[in-house]
Amino acid sequence: MNHISKLPNIETTIFTVMSQLAAQENAINLSQGFPNFPSDPKLIELVQQALRENYNQYAPMPGALILREAIAEKMELLYQRDYNPATEITVTAGATQAIFTIISAFVRPTDEVIIFTPAYDCYAPAVEVHGGKVIPIQLKGKEFSVDWNEVRSKITTKTKLLIINTPHNPSGTVLSKADMLELSSILENTNIILLSDEVYEHIIFDGAQHQSAALYPKLAERAFITASFGKTFHNTGWKMGYCVAPKALMHEFKKVHQFNVFSVNHPMQIGIGKYLKNPKNYLGLPAFFQRKRDYFLNEIKDSRFTWKPSQGTYFQVLSYENITDEFDTEFAKRLTREYKIASIPLSVFNTNKEDHKLLRFCFAKTEETLAQAAKILNRI
User: Fold this and answer.
1) Considering the entire predicted model, what is its pTM?
2) How many angstroms separate the CA atoms of 4 and 25, rounded?
3) Range(s) for CATH 3.90.1150.10 in the chain?
4) How far apart are CA 266 and CA 312, in angstroms?
5) pLDDT digit string (tens) for 61-83?
């Protein structure tokens, strides 16, 4: 049998490549973004309690009500935006499933979708597999800033969707209030849907406020906001996330969601729903992760790498331009093989694979792991 691939240019993701190489080489893995410390025992106990209480059958299709209500309360507390738990919130199998389902529900063949590169690698394939056309816009310079005039120039009558990600993976930068107001002005009076990937909303540093699309009425009226409990509560393997959107948009989302997933892990929803009722369980996360960022950067202050401190996420981008002229993918692999430390090269996320001599390191690790990694980086 002969088949024409719908994704002919897709290869194994860089996350899989680098994690497999790290395992083969017994290297410290700072490549893939997952914590190596446990979740809060209180959250684990709440999920175990839900298991014992027999929440072991299908959850309601949009999610357990206790969790949807807790999400609504969190959105109101943080962003002063009222989302109806019955019609505007859906619990998903991680943020990636939410993103894929949004694209499935709205993108038709020949529709155009604007993404900013370097971009998380699930965006473009989801567009392409549905026959859409990706319109990439490269973020500028070491600041990874948006050229909003370029954004204006790329919008056409075929533009269906625009995707933003803040705090941004892989760069660790954040969109400012000025950025969001500019975006709001550009999208006003269009039919373009905004997909705002905000999975790192609680991991933002130096006293900054996360600029959620929910804070801006003219954006919120056209926006899907996706979020991740895995990123938030150190349990990426649970694959638990959610999205919020106005009723009319969410109605279309649910049409696809019910046949794609229908519902997600019920006892975990009950446990997280109870855990979210205490805002302290997420309000303390910025300080928690900033301590890890600061510890890591202090430990490598005498290295030959250079950097701008991450503004958000649990990733730190390091420049190696003072060390070697090697292409970043080759240098990342050599570091893993020869120095036993794994990272992620940024060129794989860029338009035309542009190489700016940058590697991404995950600092959501124990201090012991970060100290071991710093010793290696300091002798390169």
Assistant:
1) 0.96
2) 36
3) 14-32+284-378
4) 30
5) 999 999 999 999 999 999 999 99
